[in-house]
Design brief:
Chain A: Keywords: Membrane, Transmembrane, Transmembrane helix. Chain A: The chain crosses the membrane at residues 21-38, 44-63. The complex is a heterodimer of chains A (68) and B (319). In chain A, α1 (19-38) packs antiparallel against α2 (43-63). Chain A starts with 18 loop residues before the first helix and ends in a 5-residue tail after the last helix. Chain A is mostly helical and 68 residues long. Chain A has helices spanning 19-38, 43-63. Chain A has one domain (16-63). Chain A contains two helices and no strands. Helix content of chain A is 60%, strand content 0%. Chain B folds into two domains: 2-59, no CATH class; 82-318, MetI-like (MetI-like fold, Orthogonal Bundle). Chain B has helices spanning 2-16, 19-26, 30-59, 79-85, 88-119, 126-138, 141-151, 158-167, 183-208, 212-220, 225-253, 257-262, 274-283, 288-318. The model of chain B has no long low-confidence stretch (mean pLDDT 88). Classes of the chains: A mainly alpha (68), B mainly alpha (319). The interface between A and B is medium-sized, with 22 and 18 residues.
Amino acid sequence: MTVQRPAPAKPKRPFFIRRGPMENIATGLIGLGFLMLFQPFLLIFYTWSLVTLLAGTIMFIIVSKFPE
Amino acid sequence: MTDTSSTSLGEAVARAAPAPIASRIRGLSDRSMAWLFITPAIALLLAVNIFPLIWAIYLSFTNFRANRPNAALENVGLSNYSRVLNDPNTWQAMQTTAHFVFWTILLQTLIGFSLAYLIDRKFRGHAFWTTIILVPMMLSPAVVGNFWRFLYQPQIGLFNHIVSFLTGIPPSSFEMLGSVRLSPWAIIIVDTWMWTPYVMLICLAGLRSIPDYIYEAAEVDRASLWRQFWSITLPMALPFIMLAILFRGIENFKMFDMVTLLTGGGPGSTTEVASITLKREAFESWRTGRASAFAIILFVAVFGLANIYVKALNKVKQR
């Protein structure tokens, strides 16, 4: 009788090069930037909306090229 | 197989062409033929879309004024962006745009899907009614804008008289285009009237793509019509609805013609959407650099949102 050993688990990629979570963060940034751009409450949010949007969009473009 | 077909295609083209061209085409590979066909389209795309975009990005960092094309260009860094993003008037225009986009999309989706659901029942004369419903979408925005201005006339306009008939309010007691409170809604009504058929058409395609056997299986399982709607119709038509929202969302962010024709941004700046502010900045104040910066901000916003949206759409499709 042979004992089957479980296949060694693949080492997990570091968090910041995993597509799923990074894509979610980028999506969150884009959504936040979008809300900041169109909200009627504080001008300071409007001022910083482009930076947030741009960061999210560039991040999304980069991380969507990562393997699954 | 592919090689054979490409050879025969190459030979057919070669036979029809004069001798020197023929000898050149005969030796083309599949890949070269593909490049030959798509190169004009790519060149046109680069010239018409990509070049103006890159040029606008460049201008957004300069003090360029289109009414002084020969003046020396100065690099102003991020100053144009900073001014646009600290300007309360531009901020107000963004809020007005958000208001229009939200309500037009909500109304168009609800009414468009409901109409598609009804038309999909295939009642007697449904083809005729589909054509009638599609008419507003086929009209030019200039025509629509002009005749809605007549419809909104307080004295002779049909709209005011219908509202008066339904509610009892005197027709000349309210002015759709002249009132600060009503003018945004006047534009929302016209845009919804014009573009709901478009949403309906896409939703109808989604509803027609659902196979009948799924409903038959649901009926065998004694699922109610309500249950069939929530568990079959809506989830299967959702990618189409999302696509319609994406298309209309992008279009409505750029809404210009209808607003210009109906109110011109007024009364005051109540209906001044982002594209009107952009046009005023570029062609009335002649601050082309700042207008370019504003255009790039709008582009980044729509591009970013479209990215998330496409991701959500893919998730829905995979379900």
